[in-house]
Specification:
heterotrimer; A: alpha/beta; eight-stranded mixed β-sheet; four-stranded antiparallel β-sheet; 12 strands; C: mainly alpha; 73% helix; 0% strand
């Protein structure tokens, strides 16, 4: 009998996934785009870690890099990704591939393109269990049980259907079922609710929460939606233009943000603005181009508190609380209190 | 008070298959009703929000008003005159007074034209030659806060926020009385959503333009609109003053929508109303009240009889269609603590 | 400090290296593309400057001994009437390129118009046009050519006519597919929402967006056309003697192959070079413009 909490053989609280100093470039006709720079992320076992960022932050790139699903013109220039203690980037490709679909699984933003349109759901769900033993019938039953668990009514008869016969919300549930069927230790979710209506989003969130606590897996949850991250995640990493600017528990990030970008971002979210106002706050300027970066802090040009040092020196991570760190020069000087 | 835009009992019906195929497959009703009898008014300088999820019909209403999709029945009056069912030439004249911005900021700009050419399109289309195109383009770029050099750029060289502003600039070209903004914040980062919304608000203040905002983003609606209308399966389920609805939603769907908005606060008190199921297909509309399949308060009468709209008698014109509208005791939504 | 005006100004003046520069840079990365471009330029230049390059008059007989092998005087030797083959080949290039451009130009224009009409017309008209296109395409080209020549007599005009007519359906279909895909795109809807008329939308907004793939197709079709023209001349159904033409040179060489192989070589080489050149160039263009095939690292 397989233990129910398959993923928890890794000591809880210990980092299941440790990304250290990841540097990643993309080759384009205009030159090298430095998409990820010195990225450090910790995903403890059994916890949900949110990666929050806007467009160009590199959060999706990070998710794909973890899974090893990058495009041909991507090149890892430095760093390591430790999964269950082993560096994924140093592994032989065959070995790394064996982890996919057994210890790591992924769900994507668009469920329609994630499912094979010409194969039945049954076939896809049985195939995905290819790492595990057991008869075909046992695998089929497991698939049906999982589909019922994610809320597909009448799973026994509907499993023979095809992707286009299900609605958008159902398809995303099927994708979640497929990903969690193999009881992975880590689930990577790339904006899984972005394409769904608000009422559906809530349902999927609740489903993910329940399944996560049942199975005990970790989730790396990529999103630009602050509200969703606040509700689902235990820890949050905030990314801006290819760097992790702040990382900490969800309460640290939302209640005591250290980095100016995090603070500005939270101010801009209309959901935080309790009273109706006709003038919404914004962060002026644009995300800098990642070709040929100038030195110094990446957020300097849009930061209201930038000083001379910010242009010369790239800030390293400063610890500002238990397991809470941010990359900002202004956090050095405790007396230099940033205006609230 | 005569409204700027008055829509009366608008219905839009699409064909799902050709008549031949319908006969061949024996389908009785090869139609889908995207909009089923919608009525509303927008006064000069007012902002109305149309809220709905996918399949609600909100985009179809916008297209019907702009004349891109002729309504199956109903009347659309603009400035007192009927504008649906007009000939091409007359419709073109009407289009000088209303403009639309689209959901895909870059995709709604013709890819091979420079920003300047794009801004001059409205003038060229309507044959207006008495103005200097370059000067007009510059004026419009200034209005939306973009530097003049942007005139030389192509759409693919613009960021989402910049492209949106170009879209707004283009909409303003002929000084319209009404702008329809279809998902003005779609695809925009939170930190720049405010840019386009603040811009619209400012333009409205300065130029007195009426705005119809179509969105599923309730946060946008709260900050931008005077009144809002919630749509479900092609019908209005609740209409009224925005603030009033946020404080006290009367329809269960409104309540669910309001509470489905996750608040960026991990300690938020969640009076979450989760509704089950998904939006039913337009091809298989539920009987009785169309929301009953997902409503936690549904009772027997809801399954059998469609509720008639309750028209608010007071100034606020708060309308809703529900057999058991919510009152202060039953309504509760998530709020930032 | 954040200064939005400064940021905007800086953004605006940071010019993207123009599209042409980037295109050339990309092209230079593909060796075959460069080779193709070089060959095409070579062929085109030799055709344009033919009268200056050709050492002898291409139709003048007995400028040298009959069927002489290549030498310094006669770079590709002489043919059975003592004419300088090199001069004939250079002048023949003019015929080849003339046929290619006139016929492809005509079929491009007609195909473009018909394709646009088909894409934006009601279903029945679209289907009708597609039927016409498919019917024309189902004709074996050579048979069609023979029929035309029988009716109109052998001449350059017949060749151009045949090529043009048989190419129209292909281009029209490509244009129709592309334009059809654009029909529902957001920017077309935006233009309609501003009151733009049918013609304006086609001319200003659709046409520039469909012409790209079409031009690549044309580039790949040039060798086919040239081969077709040479083939017809080879069969005696194209240009009339003494007009120099690659196909005619080949045909002559075929007759005298037991005496000298050089005529055949001289007639064949230019066709091979032109085919390779346009094909390599066309493929490189296609790869550059298809973002999915990019491998920029």
């Amino acid at each position: 009998m397989k233990p129910a909490h398959f993923a928890q053989h890794w000591p809880p609280g210990e980092p299941l996934l440790e990304i250290r100093g990841l540097d990643l470039d993309f080759g384009t006709p205009r030159g090298r785009v430095r998409a990820l720079r010195k990225v450090d992320i910790d995903v403890p076992a059994g916890q949900v870690v949110g990666i929050v960022g806007e467009s160009g932050s590199g959060k999706s790139t990070l998710a794909y890099a973890t899974m090893g699903l990058l495009a041909e013109n991507a090149e890892v220039v430095g760093g390591a990704i430790f999964f269950e203690g082993r560096d994924l980037l140093a592994m032989a490709p065959g070995e790394r591939r064996r982890l996919l679909g057994s210890r790591m699984a992924m769900i994507f933003q668009d469920p329609m393109t994630a499912l094979n349109p010409v194969r039945s759901i049954e076939k896809q769900m049985v195939d995905i269990q290819h790492h595990e033993g057991g008869s075909r019938r046992a695998k089929r039953q497991r698939a049906i049980d999982m589909l019922e668990r994610v809320g597909i009514p009448d799973a026994g008869s509907r499993i023979g259907g095809y992707a286009h016969q299900f609605s958008g919300g159902m398809r995303q549930r099927i994708c979640i079922a497929m990903a969690l069927l193999v009881k992975p230790a880590l689930l990577v979710a790339d904006e899984p609710t972005t394409a769904l209506d608000a009422t559906l989003e809530v349902q999927i969130l609740h489903l993910l929460k329940e399944l996560q606590s049942e199975i005990g897996c970790s989730i790396l949850f990529v999103s630009h939606h602050l509200g969703v991250v606040a509700e689902l995640c235990d820890r949050v990493a905030v990314m801006y233009a290819g760097e992790v600017v702040e990382q900490g528990t969800v309460r640290d990030i939302f209640n005591r943000p250290g980095h100016p970008y995090t603070r500005a971002l939270l101010e801009c979210d209309p959901g935080r603005i309790a009273t109706s106002t006709r003038l919404l706050p914004t962060i002026p300027g644009e995300v800098p181009s990642l070709l040929g970066l100038p030195g110094g802090c990446i957020f300097r040009q849009r930061c209201l508190h930038a000083v001379a040092r910010c242009a010369d020196e790239t800030p390293g991570a400063r610890v500002i609380g238990t397991s809470h760190s941010a990359r900002c020069h202004l956090l050095d000087d405790k007396e230099q209190v940033m205006p609230a | 008070m005569s409204a700027l835009l008055a829509v009366e009992d608008l219905r839009v019906r699409f064909r799902t298959m050709s008549p031949l195929k319908a006969i061949a497959t024996g389908t009785q009703n090869p139609f889908v009703d995207a909009v089923c009898g919608v009525s509303f008014e927008i006064a000069k300088g007012e902002t109305l929000g149309l809220i709905g999820e996918s399949g609600s019909g909100k985009s179809t209403i916008a297209r019907a008003i702009m004349g891109l999709r002729p309504p199956t029945s109903g009347t659309i009056r603009f400035g007192g005159e009927v504008v649906n069912g007009l000939g091409a030439a007359e419709r073109k004249l009407t289009l000088r007074r209303m403009a639309m911005t689209f959901q895909d900021p870059v995709g709604s700009l013709s890819p091979r034209l420079t920003v300047r050419s794009l801004l001059m399109e409205p003038f060229r289309i309507h044959g207006i030659t008495d103005r200097d195109p370059a000067a007009e383009a510059e004026r419009l770029l200034n209005m939306v806060g973009l530097p003049v050099d942007f005139g030389r750029r192509y759409p693919h060289q613009l960021s989402g926020g910049q492209a949106r502003r170009v879209g707004v600039a283009r909409a303003l070209a002929l000084a319209p009385d009404l702008i329809i903004a279809d998902e003005p914040t779609a695809g925009l980062d939170v930190s720049v959503q405010g840019e386009v919304l603040n811009l619209l608000a400012r333009l409205q203040r300065e130029l007195g333009i009426a705005i119809l905002i179509i969105t599923h983003n309730l946060n946008v609606v709260r900050h931008m609109t005077d009144r809002m209308a919630i749509m479900y399966l092609g019908r209005f389920v609740e209409v009224g003053l925005t603030e009033r609805i946020f404080e006290q939603p009367r329809h269960p769907y409104t309540q669910a929508l309001l509470s489905a908005n996750p608040v960026p606060d991990p300690d938020a008190v969640l009076d979450r109303v989760e509704i089950s199921g998904e939006v039913p297909s337009l091809l298989r509309r539920p009987q009785g009240c169309e929301f009953h399949t997902r409503c936690r308060y549904a009772q027997d009468v809801c399954r059998r009889v469609a509720p008639l709209p309750v028209i608010g008698a007071d100034e606020a014109r708060h309308n809703f269609s529900c057999h058991f509208p919510l009152s202060a005791s039953t309504a509760g939504v998530a709020h930032a603590s | 400090m954040a200064d939005i005006q400064a940021i905007s100004h800086r953004e605006a003046t940071r010019r993207d290296p123009g599209a042409v520069t980037m295109f050339l840079r990309q092209l230079l990365k593909t060796p075959l593309g460069v080779l193709g471009a070089v060959l095409v330029v070579l062929v085109a230049a030799s055709a344009v400057f033919a009268t200056w390059i050709a050492p002898y008059d291409a139709v003048k007989i007995m400028v040298g001994p009959r069927l002489a092998p290549p030498s310094l005087h006669y770079l590709l030797g002489t043919d059975q009437l003592g004419r300088d083959v090199f001069s004939r080949v250079i002048m023949g290039g003019r015929i080849a390129l003339l046929v290619a451009f006139v016929s492809l130009g005509a079929s491009l224009s007609v195909g473009l118009v018909l394709g646009l009409i088909a894409a934006f017309s009601p279903r029945w008209l679209d289907n009708l046009l597609l039927l016409v296109f498919d019917t024309i395409r189902s004709f074996p080209v050579i048979i069609f050519a023979l029929a035309v020549v029988t009716l109109l007599g052998p001449s350059l005009a017949s060749v151009i006519f045949v090529v043009a007519v048989t190419s129209v359906p292909i281009y029209a279909r490509v244009v129709r597919t592309q334009a059809h895909a654009l029909r529902e795109s957001e920017f077309i809807i935006a233009e309609r929402a501003m009151g733009a008329g049918f013609v304006r939308i086609l001319a200003v907004h659709v046409l520039p967006n469909v012409i790209g793939p079409l031009l690549i197709l044309v580039s790949m079709d040039v060798p086919l056309v040239i081969t077709l023209e040479a083939g017809m001349s080879f069969l005696g159904m194209g240009v009339r003697p003494p007009t120099p033409d690659w196909g005619t040179i080949l045909s002559d060489g075929y007759g005298y192959i037991h005496k000298t192989v050089w005529l055949v070589v001289a007639g064949g080489i230019p066709i091979v070079i032109t085919t390779l050149g346009f094909t390599f160039l066309g493929e490189a263009l296609r790869d550059i413009f298809d973002p999915r095939l990019r491998k920029d690292l």
